[in-house]
Specification:
214 residues; mainly alpha; Serine Threonine Protein Phosphatase 5, Tetratricopeptide repeat; globular; disordered N terminus
Length: 214
């Protein structure tokens, strides 16, 4: 049941493992600030216009972090995530342009380090490829999406995001039985007390996906 829309889901978690702490000592904290800001806007902030304005500010902040750490994948990853969320909330005429920009940012991050963010960069690209319609409307590609989501799952097999998005992808492809398996695995993922807004918000989305399948 192919989704012919641009509901580009809010993206991901577990993205800070393995960040360098020597030459780029401030980068993990700055990237986490983008991560936490995104989670607060998506899961805790009320009002569509308020969220949109906050995402615009966060996008500017993410671009500044990218500029401070050229050639590093993680800041590009989170700039792509914020841009994806902006696409999700944009009007019809701006959705595809923002989604394409998000894809390009994430592709650049993937080219730098396909393992970045514990698979988060592969996952982000995969989500875009199955959420965005294919040709001639957009750049969607279910086969490419599946490959990228499997890469992400191999890098973080017990992660809530990796299992949730793979479950959603499988349901989109009509594989309800396997989708349920991965959704239940996502729900069993350990809680992340360092990012409570994301943890609670994503679990609600996992539960909603399971309820939808039921």
């Amino acid at each position: 049941m192919k989704k012919q829309h641009f509901a580009i889901m809010a993206l991901f978690a577990s993205l800070l493992g393995g960040l360098p702490t020597a030459a780029f000592a401030g980068m993990p904290e700055e990237v986490k600030a983008i991560n936490d800001g995104w989670a607060h806007i998506v899961y805790e902030m009320k009002g569509s216009s308020t969220q949109t304005k906050a995402l615009d500010r966060l996008g500017q902040q993410a671009a500044q972090v990218v500029a401070r750490y050229p050639g590093k994948a993680e800041p590009l990853l989170w700039q792509g995530i914020v841009t994806s969320e902006q696409a999700n909330r944009a009007n019809f005429f701006h959705k595809l342009g923002l989604a394409t920009r998000a894809r390009d940012l994430l592709a650049k991050a993937y080219a730098i380090d396909p393992h970045a963010g514990k698979g988060g960069v592969a996952m982000s690209l995969g989500v875009l490829y199955y959420k965005v319609p294919g040709s001639p409307i957009g750049f969607g590609d279910d086969a490419r999406a599946g490959k990228l989501l499997k890469e992400a799952l191999a890098l973080d097999p017990g992660g809530m995001d990796a299992n949730y998005f793979y479950a959603d992808y499988l349901l989109d492809q009509g594989d309800k039985a396997d989708a349920r398996t991965y959704a239940m695995k996502a729900l069993r993922a350990p809680h992340d007390t360092t990012r409570p807004a994301w943890d609670a918000g994503r679990r609600r989305e996992v539960q909603a996906l399971i309820a939808h399948m039921n």
